[in-house]
Every structure is written in structure tokens, then in C-alpha cells.
Amino acid sequence: MLTQIRRQNGVTILEPNGRIMGPSVSKLREVILAQMEAYDAPRILINFEKVSMIGSAGLGALMEARTIATRKKGRIGVIHVGKQIKNLIVTSRLASVFEHFDSEDAAVYSLSIVSKVQ
């Protein structure tokens, strides 16, 4: 699994590609945690458009990132969450944990406004 990383208006945009299962969970965790450590109040947007599947361990990695972001007064948003991922999040009763946005522009705007205010 390859994860593209870019920044826009103070928001780190992660674009994982493929299945987030098995060894790819560790790779994604490393990428996310590196971004969390790099900033005092990290603002991260995860684009799931190219993710075909995520397992419970992948969801656990996202929850770990969410916990760290909250502790550092950061935020994590998600876009393009496919049916399989959405079902897993709803089944796990975690739907309200992640900020969902309709588009990358809306997400970057929302996440960057807060980071400039704080």
C-alpha cells in the first residue's frame, strides 16, 4: 500500500491506496504517526477514494491517530469513505468519531480555519 502525502493550507492530506489490511496497517500507522509528531496541533485529512478495503486493525490504527490528535488538540477529517469502510465504522459505532466532509475543498477550508484561530 502506498500513501501519497501533501499539504494544503496547514492541512496534511493523506491518500492511501489499496487495502488497509495486514502489513499495510503498520505502514499507514507509521505515516499517520509521523504526521502527528511533526505538528503541535495536527490537522489531517484522509482521502479514502483509492482504498478498496479496511480491516479492523486498520480501523484501530485510525482510532489511535484520533486519540493522539485529540490529545494534541488536532483534528482528523475523512472524505470519500466507501461503502465497506462506512459499514465498518457504523457497525463499530464510531461514525461520530471522525469528521466527515463532502469534498476536499470543504475539508481543507474547515480544518485550516480552526488551525489559524488557535
Task: Give your account of this protein's structure.
The protein contains 4 helices and 6 strands. The protein is α/β, with parallel strands linked by helices. It is 47% helix and 28% strand. It has one domain: 2-Layer Sandwich (Transcription Regulator spoIIAA). Helix 1 packs parallel to helix 2. Strands 1, 2, 3, 4, 5 and 6 form a 6-stranded mixed β-sheet that branches.
Care to give the gist of this entry?
With 118 residues, this protein is α/β, with parallel strands linked by helices. Helices cover 47% and strands 28% of the residues. It has a single domain (2-117), classed as Transcription Regulator spoIIAA (2-Layer Sandwich), CATH 3.30.750.24.
Task: Present the secondary structure layout.
Layout: E1 2-8, E2 11-20, H1 23-38, E3 43-47, E4 51-54, H2 56-71, E5 75-79, H3 83-91, E6 99-100, H4 104-117
Parallel strand pairs: 2-3, 2-4, 3-5, 5-6
Antiparallel strand pairs: 1-2
Helix pairs in contact: 1-2
Give the tags.
single chain; alpha/beta; Transcription Regulator spoIIAA; 6 strands
